[in-house]
Design brief:
The protein is mainly alpha-helical and 189 residues long. Helix content is 39%, strand content 4%.
Length: 189
Amino acid sequence: MDAELLALLLAEPYYRRPAPKSTGKELFHSAYLERMLTEHRAASGTEPADPDLLATLVALTARTVADEVRRHGLTQVLVSGGGCRNPVLLAALAAGLPEVALVPSEAATLPSDAKEAVAFAVLGWYTVHGLPASVPACTGARGARVLGSLTPGPHGLPRPDPVRRAPVAAVFGTAREAMPGAAGTGMGR
């Protein structure tokens, strides 16, 4: 792990922005990393070997996640996606967050590889029921909004049963049977 490179990477202003925030390949991409490595070479005269670079990127990921978890006072985090199968990353997170339970999302009956599909299904469910799915405190929007649009096919659009209020929980997989109030859609009403 290259401590000087890690310090350079941690100086990225994005990490200090307050929530809500989101980013991806529009900021963090191969050209970004090449630029950081060029700055690092100019400052230190060295270039990390590939294993050291990978260890530094794991340390960056663990550090930035741990910083946000601590800032929000979380005591449990559901881990999912490809990172949850990276034992080095999970060990770094556990070391940086000894007071926080790192729980695989499967323990909540949510397959880690399905989180994006589930998220879009939930958003679609809200849209089809005419319920706002944006939370201004999380998105920065000025108010709650129904997201997306529905385009009827040639035979119209079937209407779901009306829903008077938004669900307070979603239950996935076999836990549904154990949860009162979880309707057949998987969304508690």
